[in-house]
Amino acid sequence: MTDQPLTAALSLQRAGAPRVGSERIRLLEAIARTGTIAAAAREVGLSYKTAWDAVGTLNNLFERPLVEAAPGGRTGGNARVTETGRAVIEGFDHLEGALSKALSAFEGNLASAPEQALTTLWSLTMRTSNRNTLRCTVTRVTPGAVNAEVELALTDGHALTAVITERSVSDMGLAPGVQVFALIKASFVMLAAGGDPGRISACNRLTGIVAARTDGPVNTEIILDLGNCKSITAVITHTSADALGLAPGQPATALFKASHVILAMP
């Protein structure tokens, strides 16, 4: 069944508590529409007891109750979705939309560039360990037969270029003015001492000042200050860092390929 699209399921959970997935959020929406747990249970195809237990799980998951219910049994008793409950519905729907877009971008890349697709998945699921997550604004989209070139504004004087699939551009609704996150693995970033290194194929060049250097037995982490509270991190070999004379206060340029830039929606 490879012609069927991939799907992903979002769930919420706290340590030691049951998971809450989309079916419980749909129940919450039905309670907001009908005003009773019994009617909502019938609407979503649950037994009254299952729906009542689900409401208890939802209320226990958050500091404030999502549903305030009056006792009344299977045929009576009003229920009200609180402001907190409505905020949870809206937030969950937003997260589901973001997950759907991310999955669509991953599937599109998987078809045309499996290695890039794995990088996309790694970036989106490991964002706490991805050092380079830069908020940008799309300035131009140049379509192609399979891939599109997306130009991005980072800060005054700094711009980025990403090459992604046409399908990803369409699914994400990319157009001038749209806000996105650009994700670049630190190991994809090359460094050159000083300013513009001249003629080189990498179209992404960000010149800044070395803000920090952390040496390890084999690799060195370099953080470049790009100005306007923006920075980019590179991981290169210790030998290369010494050869380039990279030290705090020295100018350097980060270089990376457009195909190594992954885009995600904020």
Give the neighbour order of strands across the main sheet. 7-6-5-8-14
* CATH structural fold name of the domain at 11-93: Arc Repressor Mutant, subunit A
Structure class: alpha+beta
User: How far is the N terminus from the C terminus?
Assistant: 32 Å
* Highest CATH level, the class of the domain at 11-93: Mainly Alpha
Please tell me how large the radius of gyration is: 24 Å
Question: Which residues form runs of ≥5 with pLDDT under 50?
Answer: none
Largest sheet: 5 strands, antiparallel
Rounded mean pLDDT is 83
CATH architecture descriptor name of the domain at 11-93 = Orthogonal Bundle
CATH superfamily of the domain at 11-93: Winged helix-like DNA-binding domain superfamily/Winged helix DNA-binding domain
Q: What is the tally of beta strands?
A: 14
Order of helices and strands: EEHHHEEHHEEEHEEEEEHEE
Question: Rough shape?
Answer: elongated
Helical content, roughly? 25-40%
Report on this structure.
- The protein has 266 residues and is α+β, with helices and mostly antiparallel strands.
- Among the domains are: 83 residues, Arc Repressor Mutant, subunit A, CATH 1.10.10.10; 72 residues, Beta Barrel (OB fold (Dihydrolipoamide Acetyltransferase, E2P)).
- 34% of the residues lie in helices and 32% in strands.
- It is built from seven helices and 14 strands.
- The strands form four sheets. The protein has a five-stranded antiparallel beta sheet with strand order 7-6-5-8-14, with helices on both faces. Strands 9-13-10-11-12 form a five-stranded antiparallel beta sheet. A two-stranded antiparallel ribbon has the order 1-2.
- A hairpin with a 2-residue loop joins strand 11 and strand 12.
- The longest helix has 30 residues.
- The radius of gyration is 24 Å and the shape is elongated.
- The protein starts with 10 loop residues before the first strand and ends with a strand.
- The model has no long low-confidence stretch (mean pLDDT 83).
